[in-house]
Amino acid sequence: MATVLIVDDEFGIAELLESVLTDEGHTVFTAANGRHGLQRMAEAAPHLIVLDFMMPVMDGPTMLRALQAEEATRDIPVVMMSSMPEAAVRARCDGYAVFLRKPFRLKEARAAVAAALDGAGRGG
Q1: Where is the PTM 4-aspartylphosphate found along the chain (predicted)?
Q2: At 91, which CATH number?
Q3: Distance separating alpha carbons of residues 121 and 19, to the nearest angstrom
């Protein structure tokens, strides 16, 4: 199974995803914004990052660019989440593996995580 970092300022969403992914056998840790997410990366190298698009302090696109700028993190797949249409998200950033539109069903979230992990040849 994979280590997953969930970065979302909406506590309820982060908690729900953490519960679902932990039940599936993944090791999950969370962060409330992009800056906190980058700090949490030092604690455990994730196989996957589930990243919210709009957050205070550091948003998803800024964190994604920071990940892509570093050799050690640029190949970690990212599931980008947003309530905005994907076209609007893609206009501000690219390089994420899978897009997950909020609000989502748990089945959709599980499928997005599985697709990102499968696409990266990681996970279990």
Answers
A1: 52
A2: 3.40.50.2300
A3: 24
